[in-house]
TrEMBL record:
The reaction(s) this protein catalyses: Cleaves type-1 transmembrane domains using a catalytic dyad composed of serine and histidine that are contributed by different transmembrane domains
GO cellular component assignments: membrane
PANTHER family: RHOMBOID-RELATED PROTEIN, RHOMBOID-RELATED PROTEIN 1
Gene name of the encoded protein: Rhbdl1
Similarity remark: Belongs to the peptidase S54 family.
Subcellular location: Membrane
Residue ranges annotated for the Peptidase S54 rhomboid domain, each copy included: 166-217
Major localization class: membrane
Single GO molecular function: serine-type endopeptidase activity
Short name of any one Pfam family annotated for the protein: Rhomboid
EC number(s) reported in the record: 3.4.21.105
Name this protein carries in UniProt: rhomboid protease
Protein's membrane topology: Multi-pass membrane protein
UniProtKB keywords: Membrane, Transmembrane, Transmembrane helix
Amino acid sequence: QLDPENTGFIGVETFASLVHSHELPLDPAKLDMLVALAQGNDEGQVCYQELVDLISSKRSSSFKRAIANGQRALPRDVLLDETGLGFYKRFVRYVAYEILPCEMDRRWYFYQHRTCPPPVFMAAVTLTQIIVFLCYGARLNKWVLQTYHPEYMKSPLVYHPGHRARAWRLLTYMFMHVGLEQLGFNALLQLMIGVPLEMVHGILRISFLYLAGVLAG
């Protein structure tokens, strides 16, 4: 209706009025991006494909260009301007600023994160790995290069080529670590990257991805 000649473009002013008068509630993050697209367009026209890319969150060149051009004109400059946030929301905002360099991506993450179910998978895996390591460290009386201890490979958790029939070892080896250095590095990555990802993608996706990596390893 707004493009009777089927050019694939509509005027920025028409598009902006449509965004603000739309009868359906829009995701705040998507609304910001749509406004950025309208206000940051130098040619005075909005391309249909750019709109599709924005709505689908497709990271195409047109998407990146529209956001880069429009960020300067966002109605709310930064996520830090949000007031009246509870402790958990402030924590989510802190995570967004720690892991994302782009303000638009931070806002998208802030609105996409999930509180239910909470991100317990990565935290539970990391805690279990720490407990297992402490138990074996105390049992072997060795905290560095535990694999050098003759009793280490007798663990029912370790993957051993001679015990391929024990299928559980293909998964349980993820709880075993060489020493404090490996455990610390793994735990740090899992908490800094895995937990924020789980807050957006949920426990099912992140657990499937993690266990797929364990099996591939």
